[in-house]
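Hello again,

I reread your note about wanting to compare the complex against the isolated chains. To keep things tidy I'm splitting this into two emails, and this first one only covers the full assembly. Below are the input lines as submitted, including protein chains and any nucleic acid or small-molecule components. They are followed by the predicted structure of everything together. The single-chain runs will come separately.
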Amino acid sequence: MFNVDNFLHDEALPASAKWTGFPLYNFIGGHNDEDLIPIEKLEEASKKVILNHGHILGKYNYTGPLGYLPLRKFIIKKLLNGASMKCSEDEILVVSGSLQALDLVNETFLKQGDTVIIEEGSYGGVFSRLEKLGINIKGIPVEDDGMNINLLSECLEELKAINIVPRYVYTIPTIQNPTGTIMSKEKRIKLIELAKKYDVPIFEDDCYADLIWGEERPPSIRALDDSKRVIYCGSFSKSIAPGFRLGYLVADWPILSRVLPYKTDAGTGGLEQMVLSEFCENHFFDHLTKLNQKLKLKAITMCEALDKYFGNTVEYKKPIGGIYVWIKMPDGVDTSKLYNIALQEGVAINPGVEWSMDKKNKQKMRLCFANPTDKSIDEGVKKLAKVCKKEFGVPVSIANIN
Amino acid sequence: MFNVDNFLHDEALPASAKWTGFPLYNFIGGHNDEDLIPIEKLEEASKKVILNHGHILGKYNYTGPLGYLPLRKFIIKKLLNGASMKCSEDEILVVSGSLQALDLVNETFLKQGDTVIIEEGSYGGVFSRLEKLGINIKGIPVEDDGMNINLLSECLEELKAINIVPRYVYTIPTIQNPTGTIMSKEKRIKLIELAKKYDVPIFEDDCYADLIWGEERPPSIRALDDSKRVIYCGSFSKSIAPGFRLGYLVADWPILSRVLPYKTDAGTGGLEQMVLSEFCENHFFDHLTKLNQKLKLKAITMCEALDKYFGNTVEYKKPIGGIYVWIKMPDGVDTSKLYNIALQEGVAINPGVEWSMDKKNKQKMRLCFANPTDKSIDEGVKKLAKVCKKEFGVPVSIANIN
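Full-complex prediction:
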């Protein structure tokens, strides 16, 4: 009988386990509120585009390899409105989710042994990608107003001293993942100045930028840069639905023309692009308002549950947008360990070490609140507190424990 | 100003040119007949799934990382019906087009310097992928009933003599691309025997297998193998629409569990999976019958045009399925050169060298006929003949030339 092990290289990724369903209390993943999927309006949009333009599906990339033109036109409008960024149709590449944007940029610019600079705490999928590629990662701590620019400056200087040019500075400046912070306009400008001084590209990931509650967001870094060095990506996964695998990569044509050849997937889903563009053209901003109202309430539910069941043993900053809260657990708690035992009780959390290059983040964890119901948030956090108390002795007392 | 060239490695792919639209006479690409996109039925399906199950879009991979369960169930039915292959839900991975299947299998099994065996003439995207990865390719000639098994045997023996185990034998056995041949059942069995003897996996690409006109197709190689060494892929791009980016990778769990970790795209398009599964459940086989009737007529149109304008200067085998015809041009014609000059006249062809590892295929070319109208096929082939005559002196005379 065939044995696959004989055909795998040493560096093969470990085997997947069989999927057994989502955990009952699912505080991980970028899932969205299922009640806020705009079903009726998506159906209307779908009907219109299929009946009027369905023949388009007969061709790969009907309006070119950069993606469906009406969707690119909407993205232009949206980026001007939200990120104060002007761009043209040829500067936008529709991708199959922003993860594809990460892969394309990495394929274009990175080679084993290269160095990149990223925020010390960042999206787990960024770490796993860079590690798989054998990239040296330099981490910059994040403050309440974004990346610590002085430490970034030092890092660039140190690398320069040993003749290393980082391939890019990657940042999630607007609702940073996992800290939830927004980089100030001042820091954005300083970041661009540094990038110019050391001649480094900036890779700006604005995936959560649509989910801001109330505050004015600063212009995107790409909008503030006049040296055409910023590669920007965004997504509809968080603003509409992750089931649509649609994101966008934005860059000036000299960059985009070097990234595009790596997109060898024969195009991003045509039906999803058509339906989404039709929906967005008419309802995007209204939908976003509704979604943000609900997410803000869910964040409150999550914070209340944390306060209720963990009391003052946990530290966190109240979210100002996004779908997660970044929590510092008490001394002695190892969230990787907590992850394993909580999962057995049906509670899934993101342990800090996966969202960070700093192993001291064993004390941290990320909890996502967009998908679970209010009831589920309350019950799940309660259960998590019980598990945590049993394993680590904290919190010492839990409200309303039977 | 930023200069991207400073950040690209030597092996970077050449820059993309800006897209300027499809050529007027487009005989390349796997595009489908636009009139046969089942618009009304897709709209019905879409309405039903969005209104009844639209909330599913709120989660990544709602029914697990292998893809939407109802679609996997349909694929099981379809593979049993068409390819005589039994499989279970855990043996099917829905992918974003079968090109993703190629990428995933390559990522899992291949490393620079590895060797694979493929048909000497094969899909251009396979060659470009393998070349990018730095893989040694051994080519096996294809006969009317499929791969030359004796030469395959010799190749395996030669590789063994120098201690090289090929990572897989890749084949498109059913409507081979570009030759349009079907590998006989006898050869499929012999291929499996060889693969067992030399302990090599087989990678069976059945992307065109739904498009057979009249003939009974043999069971898939995977259906005939009892040693669990066949990785199989297929696609809905050709049977429904390429605008749906949906294909499937089929393998026993010990293999699939090693491939799945490389699918880090957070899932294949949810809406497209839902709509397609609903459509297929009710209409797939009827639709296929209609599509094949039309494709068969278009193949006739293409052959008639070739005969009319090229006379007996070209050699080709009449298609028995699929969407292309593989043509041998007269001595002295270089189809790569023809490609460039024909394109300026609005006629796009696939030059043989891109579909082959054999440089003598300069004389060959592939013409696709599914997308262009009958009128366009006739006009385009006429124009191609004129261009060819002007450049290469053949055909000597062309019918109905004004």
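For quick reference: Chain A has a mean pLDDT of 96.

B.
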